[in-house]
Please model this.
Amino acid sequence: MPDHDDTTRPDADAPDALPSFSEQMRAAVANTGLGKVAPGEAPSGHALVAAIGGVRGLVESVLPGLAFLVVYAITKQVVPSVLIPVAIGVVFVVLRLLQRQSLVMSLAGILGVAISAGLALITGRAESNFIPGIVINAVWLVGLLVSLAIRQPLIGVVVGFLLPPNEDGSHQDWRRDPAKRRVLTVATWLWVGLFAIRLLIEVPLYLTAQVELLAGIKLITGVPLYAALLWVTWLLVRTVFRRQGDPAAV
Model:
């Protein structure tokens, strides 16, 4: 008699096992800016640029905001000031599509720009363009403070997902090491400071409708300040984590 068809076996053509929640979280963290920085590795300018999305990612992050500032300073008109950044975002998406590159950053960027533009067009107020950014900063600030309040500093949680397992296969637990916990807590407080500074500056400017100043401040406290703090965080984490296979690393 012929052999039974493979489809009669319960494990034939079985779908791949779905990744666990921990694996999904690890993958999500790896796609963040901090996720591009392996704990213990020596920081470099090239790696920092990669962590903030590379040169193209940097341009895609900065150009829409700069376009808003320039157009509004010249025209004082809401419609062109918010629609031109949207058009720039569309161009970035089309370019990535034509080059068959990842659309994640561009789509996320244009979504944020489009929401901001929609609010400004609905209200007829240019300062409404900055509401989403203010809300996002507030959410991050609350999240970081909550993580500190429950003694699970968010930077520590992120780094925990990035750490390689020990030689015996067990996961490294920074929570049991006072030095690591202290450094990761300090790093989390620094990120609290970043979002608090943004809110302390941007909210009064928004309430007083100082649109051009608000746009300029947002550019300064955006990617440049983010990159600087990412670098400092990297240096702090490196003081307490050694790069695997490099006993000389500090």
Q: What stands out?
A: Residues 84 and 215 are 15 Å apart (CA to CA). Residues 7-15, 244-250 have pLDDT under 50 and may be disordered. DSSP finds ten helices and no strands in the chain. The radius of gyration is 23 Å.
